[in-house]
Amino acid sequence: MRRLVLVWMVAALASSVVLAEDGFYLKPGDRVVFYGDSITDQRLYTTFTETFIVTRFPTLDVSFTHSGWGGDRVGGGGGGPIDLRLERDVFPYRPTVVTIMLGMNDGSYRAFDQTLFDKYSQGFEHIVQSLKEHLPGVRVTAIEPSPYDDVTREPLFPGGYNAVLMRYSQYLRELARKEHLHDADLNTSVVEALRMANSKDPLNAAKLLPDRVHPAPAGHLLMSEALLKSWNAPSLVSSVTIDAAEGKVTDSQKAAVSNLKTDGSLTWDALESSLPMALDPKDKLLPLAISSSDYLEALDREQMKITGLKPGRYGLKIDGNPVGSYDAEDLSKGVNLATADTPMLRQALDVHALTLQHTNIHNIRWRTIQVPMEKDGYASKEKVMADLDRLDSEIVAQQRTVAQPKPHHFELAVQ
């Protein structure tokens, strides 16, 4: 009987996930290519975005390819001219969605220059038209350039370089309206968070963009948030409300609750429809980035609310392991388990490790073999690349398997 109940719970939650996807930008079967310069080549905001989608929508069939190259401008760069880059690094993956983040290098790190801007605008429009020509129906997300840090350090010239990037962003917003592109601002909210962080902890705030250009992982997480919010990503992981005095579940969203008991301690089983975001507890900059932004409220709400408790302190265990200690008043208002060391978080971190693994395998195949050995004529090269593609696919399959939610046993007791 317990197995039948579990099967019913999984089916019901899968149905709720499909409904949750209705307003989300990505759809079943989408193939996403992230294109850009060294900030995309860091494979951080892109892998955070991938992991969020895989864990929040564990039944959604979407693939991801990371095609950033350091130093790129709208005309290309170290990976070759733009038309070669597109022919080799974008079109073969038959993307239905392409994100483009360029501009940091195009402005040449100096005061606004009309000639450079004209080159950028013409080059960006060429990329868009080429994508539309080669990939009919493609959906393009034009990403406004991420920040140059003029917050934690003095600008290098009056007005600062980020103001130049904001001029480029304004152009992209206008181009998006004209060409029916999707626009994502990865600058404004990150700068706001940087200002907040700088007011709290100037020393560590400067580490969020340590060289003023390339964010640390915590900075990339905020960039990923901006992209996901522009795609209408859901904020809710799950929400469960239990009335301990009455011994009943009064509300449950994106979670199936069963076996609620009030014998001595409060216990129940729950199967959530998704996982919280893989927030690395070892990243010492992450608390500053999170507390300086709306990340948790906007994207990572795993709510547990317990009403009807007697005043006091309560310890929460999940699957027999201590998770946290909470005051009854806080529990009555609701606590966010996404910030706790839960089995769900550890599972999400396992998913992210696989995201990084498959992305690195693809990067080795592309940047170590395909491009540098293009004209070498080694007989075994194609086989090696095919083997790496198969390994990549195997890791992705494992990533999707690991992302499937599991039932957990909760116990709340007076301490």
Folded structure, characterized:
This protein has 415 residues and is of the alpha/beta class. Helix content is 44%, strand content 21%. It has helices spanning 2-20, 38-41, 45-56, 82-89, 114-134, 161-179, 188-200, 202-205, 217-230, 286-291, 295-299, 328-333, 343-370, 381-402, and strands at 31-36, 63-68, 76-77, 80-81, 97-101, 139-144, 182-185, 236-243, 248-253, 255-261, 266-272, 301-307, 313-318, 321-327, 335-336, 408-414. The longest helix is centred in the C-terminal third of the chain and has 28 residues, at 343-370. It is globular.
SSE diagram, text form:
Blueprint: H1 2-20, E1 31-36, H2 38-41, H3 45-56, E2 63-68, E3 76-77, E4 80-81, H4 82-89, E5 97-101, H5 114-134, E6 139-144, H6 161-179, E7 182-185, H7 188-200, H8 202-205, H9 217-230, E8 236-243, E9 248-253, E10 255-261, E11 266-272, H10 286-291, H11 295-299, E12 301-307, E13 313-318, E14 321-327, H12 328-333, E15 335-336, H13 343-370, H14 381-402, E16 408-414
